[in-house]
């Protein structure tokens, strides 16, 4: 039995924005009922270029419904450019995580958004059409290549979790493994950081401070509070033992700032403020 977060259960039992937008600016249908689930996404853009309404219809499991519901909540108020940066990981994180066997639901949500934005722009979604590797679920070679590269997948089971490919008759397992082996053999360069929106950057800074920085400081009786983020300036206030420590500036630069540069963005600068 899979364990679902409270947010997944809430969005499943009380889905937001169910239905269709009349005369939508962007729309998309992904998945296939014959394969088990699908999502129809529609949205409307206001005069300022922001998504004013977003609606969905889905046929699928609790995770598919929750992912589509969460996605429509996430995109409201965003510009098209901001919405285009949403990833399947963002959707899963918004829901407090998904069981690994259900990650394909957030991937399907991301694909629906990507296709709907392409419809709004009058463009085709690039790079996902091609040879069908999994006949059971209609998954193409470019789709498998994409998730393997994006998420560093190393096993057929992981590919199945992200795309459902290989989860039917199993006749495509060898082809999926060949794709994984080929991509793993490709030369790798330095990681390319995805460009973050201001909201995404602030959330990641908050998460990094909460999970990676504060616990270490608290072990020595210190603490840190995030006051504000102004551009690439991260304004913080030291607390506890850190506030009285003569080496607090070294801690801020050599530990706090270094950790934020590593996990969020290399251009960040940490500054202490009084509060």
Structure notes:
There is one protein chain. This protein is of the alpha+beta class and 275 residues long. It folds into three domains: 6-121, Sufe protein. Chain: A (Alpha-Beta Complex); 132-184, Orthogonal Bundle (Arc Repressor Mutant, subunit A), CATH 1.10.10; 198-272, 2-Layer Sandwich (GMP Synthetase, Chain A, domain 3), CATH 3.30.300.130. The chain is 45% helix and 19% strand. The chain is built from eleven helices and eight strands. It has a three-stranded antiparallel β-sheet with strand order 1-2-3, covered by helices on one side. 33% of the residues are buried. The mean pLDDT is 89.
Give a short overview.
This protein is an alpha+beta fold. It is built from eleven helices and eight strands. Strand 4 (132-134) and strand 5 (139-140) form a beta hairpin.
């Amino acid at each position: 039995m899979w364990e679902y977060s409270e947010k997944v259960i809430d969005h499943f039992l009380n889905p937001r924005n169910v239905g269709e937008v009349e005369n939508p600016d962007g729309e998309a249908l992904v998945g296939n009922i014959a394969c088990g689930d699908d999502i129809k996404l529609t949205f409307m853009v206001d005069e300022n270029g922001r998504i004013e309404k977003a609606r969905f219809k889905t046929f699928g499991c609790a995770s598919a419904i929750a992912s589509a519901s969460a996605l429509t909540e996430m995109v409201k108020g965003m510009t098209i450019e901001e919405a285009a940066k949403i990833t399947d990981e963002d959707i899963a994180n918004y829901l407090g995580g998904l069981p690994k066997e259900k990650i394909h639901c957030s991937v399907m949500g991301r694909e629906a958004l990507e296709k709907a934005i392409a419809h709004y722009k009058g463009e085709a979604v690039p790079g996902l059409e091609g040879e069908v590797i999994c006949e059971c679920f209609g998954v193409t070679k470019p789709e498998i290549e994409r998730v393997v590269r994006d998420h560093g997948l190393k096993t057929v089971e992981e590919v199945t979790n992200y795309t459902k490919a290989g989860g039917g008759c199993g006749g495509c397992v060898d082809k999926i493994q060949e794709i994984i082996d080929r991509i793993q053999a490709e030369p790798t360069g330095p990681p390319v950081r995805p460009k973050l929106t201001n909201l995404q950057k602030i959330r990641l800074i908050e998460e990094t401070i909460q999970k990676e920085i504060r616990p270490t400081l608290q072990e020595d009786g210190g603490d840190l509070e995030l006051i504000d983020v102004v551009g690439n300036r991260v304004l913080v206030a030291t607390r506890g033992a850190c506030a009285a420590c003569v080496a607090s500036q070294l801690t801020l630069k050599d530990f706090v700032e270094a950790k934020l540069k590593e996990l969020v963005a290399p251009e960040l600068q940490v500054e202490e403020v009084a509060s």
